Amino acid sequence: MTIKLTRRAALGSAAALPFAAAASPLLAEGVETKANSTIAKSFKLGEFTVTTLLDGSLPRDGAKDIFGGGASDEDFARVSAENFISPDVAQFFFTPTLVNTGSELVLFDTGLGQGGIQAALADAGVTPDQIDVVVITHMHPDHIGGMTTNDAPTFPNARYVTASPEYDFWSAQDAGNRVGDLVAAKVTPLAEKMSFLGDGGEVTSGITAVAAYGHTPGHTVYHLESNGQRLILTADLANHYVWSFAHPEWEVVFDMDKAAATASRRNVLGMLAADKVPMIGYHMPFPAAGFVETRGDGFRFVPVSYQMMG
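The line above is the sequence of MBL fold metallo-hydrolase; the predicted structure tokens follow.
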């Protein structure tokens, strides 16, 4: 599988600008995050308002088995100690993102399906029936679980967008495949309202799909651009803010094609670091936004502080 991310495809023709230069805590009309909310955080991106939504968080044992494929026990423990985290337990975060373009409310991924997405949207002043577009970055259960509630669409007025290779792969699975069965239950009933994108496809003006395959066959990240400001929604490109950045080659158990996932990580993280473009990662510590810098042969995730949140 060939992974390709060119600056032209990811960033367009304008010069990349550090996002922090014009970041503002002001909210766009129709998105009024509570000032003290711990599950919804909003910031401006040009004319867009971007809101990260905490669907849930939980610890999980066996961190090295999940995130350290190919690493020695000593190296995994050393990197963990250098970053003041346990080598044994990982804290998982699940963070869909809402983008108010000024004309549409676009939701990226829907969470676990346990009510967290509805609660976070409520803190952002949005009801599910106001969502215009739902974009599915890939079809793992923690991204499509919230598409339906009690067998009815959670976002009844939305159109749906996903990558065509992703839908084609999962919809072709035989009964008994856990993810395939969930896709059949959650995604297939909405197929008539769904459009399918390839690399470079446009969700709406200013939001472009960028193929980053490997985690799944059609895993896609999304490039946002408004008034010269840029941001990449990296989905599950890097599943942990320390291990997957410091050593992109360490295999993640959830990555279906390990070599392609590593190539995607290096391509996208390298571009983010070189061009100082910020990112939002689905599994980064909430509010899930930050920057990337080169560190040795790998990278470091630099969490947002006041640059975006005000």
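Note on the example: Residues 1-32 have pLDDT under 50 and may be disordered. The CA atoms of residues 37 and 300 lie 27 Å apart.
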